[in-house]
Amino acid sequence: MVDFRGKFVLAPMVRVGELPTRLLALKHGADLVWGPETIDKKILQCERVENRKLGTIDFLSQGGSTKVPGVTNLVFRVYPPAEKGKLIFQMGTANPELAVRAAKIVVNDVSGIDVNAGCPKHFSIHSGMGAALLSTPALLEEILTRLVTEVGRPNGKPISVKIRVLENEQKTLELVERLVKTGISNLTVHCRTKNMRNREAPIRDYLEGILDHCRSNKVSLVINGGIKDRNDFIAIQEKYGMDVGAMVASEAELNPTCFRKVPLPWREVCKEFLEFADRFANWKGNSKYCLGRIVPGGDPIRRDLSSAKEHNDLMKLFEVATWEAPSSKENTPLDVNTDTTSID
Ligand code: FNR
Questions:
Q1: For position 333, what pLDDT does the model report?
Q2: N or C: fewer beta carbons within 10 Å in the chain?
Q3: Which residue's alpha carbon is nearest to atom 16 within ligand 1?
Q4: Contacts 24+ apart (CB under 8 A), 71-75
């Protein structure tokens, strides 16, 4: 079972957290990676398909948008050789029954199931999901308890939840005290309230109290909000303890190699991103979006990026050669470094 203690991890990020970004983060020292939030109903429409050509497990849906030419409605793609033991699937849900049914579809191909109880966006909260669950703790408890007993324990996989801090310490600790008793393995706390923007400084004043509840219930804690690099992670561990983990979102969106002691320069990041995107048939719209986050504002390459029509145009722009499948049936092992101590 995945142990979240002391881990430096890639945050769940809609659009950004698809396979190329996750592989890039793993290659450069992320201990665990979260997939982008996927809604329970979406997963319930999916069929699980083994993609022999790519060596991936694909979850394909009947409805929704088509992300990959030639592949119908790809919702979630996993590459087990690199992601085994490291991939946490994040679900958007407000319904215990749907949550359990959806989790059963993916559980064998991921290392853990996480519930999003922090997203403040309208599409989440209007249907009771995301940060809306912070105001319906009994429902959140029921979702987590049922996931633990009906999916997590029978399959030996951890169930976790990602929350935000509430408007004061007392309310935050009351919520945490309830959640850590549901049988979850890990709690991730985004140290901003649901009304705060990502550019605002995180509120870390309640962390000691949160940690007490976590430790006395054998639940690990991952801290999120305003963490930029490995030095921040080290500082967090020095302050709160070596069992505490740290999660990065915004900085990893700009540079998924931020898990290294010294992150790569952006051109190299773009190249490596495209190598993974090419090898795993990432859809062009997603590659353009992710590269658009990595290339610095004002650089002339942004113009060419936005006018790129084909994936090949992106490859040419960054001078990346197309990946060639090996002639043997075996997939070539990916260059994904699992020893974070050697990453500098
Ligand atoms: C996010 N965030 C987010 N959170 C979540 O629980 N599920 C999700 O799918 C997403 N999607 C997402 C997309 C993008 C582009 C960003 C920037 C953020 C929130 C994220 O995981 C994290 O909690 C916050 O961004 C705070 O961390 P940082 O940015 O301060 O490191």
A1: 47
A2: C
A3: 13
A4: 71/281, 74/283, 75/38, 75/42, 75/43, 75/45, 75/46
